[in-house]
Amino acid sequence: MTVQVWAAPGRVESLWWGGEDLVDLVGGGRRWGADGGLRETSLRWGFPFDQAVVAPSGRFAVVYAERGTKGLVVELDGPKVLREINRSYYRAEDYDYPVAIGRLPDGREVLAHCPEDYNRVQIEDLLTGERLTEGERGTADVFHSRLAVSRDGRHLLSAGWVWAPIGVAHVYELAAAFAGPATLDADSLFAPYAGVDAEVGAACWLDEDRLAVASTDESLGWDQEPVFGTMQLGVWSVGQRRWLHCNPVDHLTGTLLARGSQVVSLNGHPRLLDTETGRVVAEWPEVTVAEKAHCYGAKHIPTPIAVVSPDGNRLAVAQEDGIAVIDLPEHGPA
Asked: How far is CA 59 from CA 12, 16, 22, 109, 129, in A?
């Protein structure tokens, strides 16, 4: 498995596969071609953004400050700034900005974020800013973070935290949220059905139905024989509301990136994990990433900047001296 290092002057601030090119949107949209050659740009944002999320269509993106309150919705053709977005100042410096872009079943792209309150997710039309979850709301005592829309645009994942602090996960049905926004403040399709008696450190969508969830070594102490306990990697079916797999892992996974039925674990260095067994398929200790087990923390440890290519064959990881591009081992169907 080959690891190439592509040179990059200055810090690589974000990564996105734009076709065969690797693009650093936060860093001004500079591009690396398939041969590692760099094409610089003159674009600068004029604000210290440090993360980005790109729409499924590739037409739009949000650049934002991970531990700040500011972001921009950007049309990439140009690029053109469509509007500014904000989140509550409350504890903003202590946890990662909640923001995601998804595409609904009708093809419309939407923005999920928390523009007024830390505990209230809103869904908006990405292009126009029209709010789709306007209406009476409930009260949820959760700091939403690491939002992600499922591939089919039917569900929203939140991997956030509650006091003391401890990481938690929630899954919401978007059609139900459009009909009754207060469903975003009620029990989700994950909790309380999952029998989790451990802190959720990370979660990501594997496909339209399956969710990969990793726990930390922090027990909640609620259940003597939990279904999903500490230091485990599990696969949860939203449709069936049950665990398909639960297996122990010997490390804190950190951020998870989906790759079919596998996940890339980013904590200290990248590891490729089989979600059905928890087994480490491959790892690259020579490629360094931050040790970050949670979405929260008084000391800001930036989330590792990494992305899996659309075909699942390569992993790109930002390094101090450039970008490590890893050829991933062959894998079966998702």
From this structure: 21, 12, 15, 10, 15
DSSP string, 298-319: SS--PPP-EEE-TTSSEEEEEE
What CA–CA distance (Å, rounded) separates 71 from 85? 5
Taking the C-alpha atoms of residue 272 and residue 135, their distance in angstroms, rounded to an integer, is 43
Please give the Cα distance from 40 to 106 (Å, whole number).
36
* 140-175: pLDDT as tens digits: 999 999 999 999 999 999 999 999 899 999 999 999
Question: Strands of 280-283's sheet, edge to edge?
Answer: 255-259, 262-267, 269-274, 280-283
Closest CA to 229 of 253, 203, 206, 199: 199
pTM metric for this prediction: 0.96
The CA distance from 92 to 95, in Å, is 6
Domains and CATH numbers, the chain: 86-327 (2.130.10.10)
Would you tell me how many other CB atoms lie within 10 Å of the CB of residue 133?
A: 21
Check whether 134 has a pLDDT greater than 60.
Answer: yes
